[in-house]
UniProtKB/TrEMBL annotation:
It comes from Lepraria neglecta. GO terms for biological process: methylation. Residues 239-394 form the O-methyltransferase C-terminal domain. Keywords: Methyltransferase, S-adenosyl-L-methionine, Transferase. GO terms for molecular function: O-methyltransferase activity. InterPro entries: COMT-like (IPR016461), COMT_C (IPR001077), SAM-dependent_MTases_sf (IPR029063), WH-like_DNA-bd_sf (IPR036388), WH_DNA-bd_sf (IPR036390). This is O-methyltransferase C-terminal domain-containing protein.
Length: 404
């Protein structure tokens, strides 16, 4: 039986790593490590260039194979890893860092519907065909898609002809996933790129130049709110207030959350199994900031006696209500409520906060919790569902990176 691509790659990595090892040992040089004593240019020897490139390329491909199509589309580490490949071929420092643009092609694919831009019924299309169906100029489209192809999103089986890879096919077929990528690339990526470390509370003038904050940014964040999001999206509102002003963006955010909840370890089943919900009998659960209700729906399906009230912003609950199946309509209700104001549902058995507090700094989190106090009866529970950061060094760096 012919070796699989995975096995070929593993062999390439093993062979070339051994060659590098032998060469370094023969020169009396140290083996690569992350130690501060490691010489910065240890592997820059021309004699190592071919083996080093082979290892980097093979590990990149194997890594992408292990991620699978969804991992390729969602893993920032895949993109970051490209930096190293470029460094190898870099002639100037400028070349080295051109991977700052890694999200551009993915953003364009979602924004212009390129993954769904093939003529109906065809699984291949020319750049020109996709350009005319998406309304993007052909030369830009070609550049964008060829950039995406370097991440194994689309391929070019013949010059000028575009076909799906597993990753682009997922994008074409999964609407919620497209909403997630669109939301990440349009909302979160620009915000992340503008994030800075701010001193606690208000920025002191003396710290402005040290932190490289421009005058216009300073004017913008002349308010209490000064997150990357405010600068990137030119607003002094919080993320959710800003989204509420733009129903399409708010709807996309909610759809993205629904997709996110399908990821391994993030499914509502963990909430279902993580608390003794049957102990409340016919009681009431208030799902605060419950978005389109994926958690409440899972709870109502698993515990036929409980009643759930999903609270969220006005437009979010409006959309969610219309999508609720009839069989759950008597036990899952949606309610507009701003969680910074007093909780209107008094005496519920559980007030659930899944992935709410993590969006807010402590001062806001305290306000959200305080707003519950007037509603609590003896024995009411507040269930908080959040990712707990591992202690440094207790899990692999790879795992820890995602958490941090
Ligand atoms: C990270 S999402 C979590 C959604 C849901 N709990 C889940 O686990 O999938 C945060 C939610 O809080 C909602 N939200 C933000 N500000 C709010 C406010 N002031 N009052 C009520 N809901 C709010 C958002 O609309 C969004 O649905």
């Amino acid at each position: 039986m012919a070796a699989s691509r995975m096995a070929e790659l593993a062999l390439l990595i093993a062979t070339n790593t051994a060659n590098i090892d032998t060469y370094l040992a023969s020169k009396g040089l140290p083996t690569p490590s992350f130690d501060a004593s490691q010489p910065a240019h240890l592997l820059n020897d021309n004699k190592l260039a071919a083996a080093r490139r082979a290892v980097l390329e093979a590990t990149d491909e194997l890594h992408a194979l292990m991620l699978g199509p969804i991992g390729i589309l969602t893993s920032p580490s895949v993109r970051a890893s490209r930096l190293h490949l470029l460094e190898l071929g870099a002639k100037t420092d400028r070349n080295k860092w051109r991977q700052h643009n890694f999200m551009i092609s993915l953003q364009a694919i979602c924004r212009f519907g390129l993954a769904t831009g093939f003529p109906t019924g065809k699984d291949q299309a020319t750049f020109g065909e996709i350009a005319s169906s998406s309304g993007v100029c052909e030369s830009q489209l070609r550049r964008i898609l060829r950039h995406a192809m370097t991440f194994r999103i689309f391929c070019e089986p013949r010059k000028g002809v575009v076909a799906h890879t597993a990753a682009s096919k997922v994008l074409a077929e999964n609407t919620l996933m497209r909403e997630w990528i669109g939301m990440v690339s349009d909302e979160m990526w620009p915000a992340a790129s503008r994030s800075k470390l701010w001193p606690d509370g208000l920025v002191q003038k003396s710290q402005i130049s040290r932190q490289g904050i421009s005058r216009s940014e300073l004017q913008l964040r002349g308010t209490k709110i000064h997150q990357g999001f405010n600068i990137a999206h030119d607003t002094d509102k919080t993320v959710f207030d800003e989204l509420a002003k733009h129903p399409e963006r708010e709807k996309r955010y909610a759809a993205a959350m629904t997709w996110f909840s399908t990821g391994p370890g993030l499914e509502p089943t963990h909430v279902v199994g993580g608390f003794a919900w049957d102990s409340i009998g016919k009681g009431t659960i208030v799902d605060i900031g419950g978005s389109h209700g994926s958690v409440s729906i899972a709870l109502a399906q698993s515990f036929p006696s409980v009643h759930c009230i999903v609270q969220d912003q006005a437009d979010v609950v409006k959309v969610a209500q219309t999508n609720l199946s009839l069989d759950l309509a008597t036990r899952v209700a949606f309610m507009e409520h701003d969680f910074f104001t007093e909780q209107p549902v008094k005496g519920a058995d559980v007030y659930l906060l899944r992935w709410i507090l993590h969006d807010w700094s402590d001062a806001y989190a305290i306000r959200i919790l305080r707003a519950l106090i007037p509603a609590l009866k003896q024995g009411s529970k507040i269930v908080v569902c959040e990712h707990i950061l591992p202690e440094p060094g207790t899990v692999s760096t790879y795992q820890e990176r995602a958490s941090r």
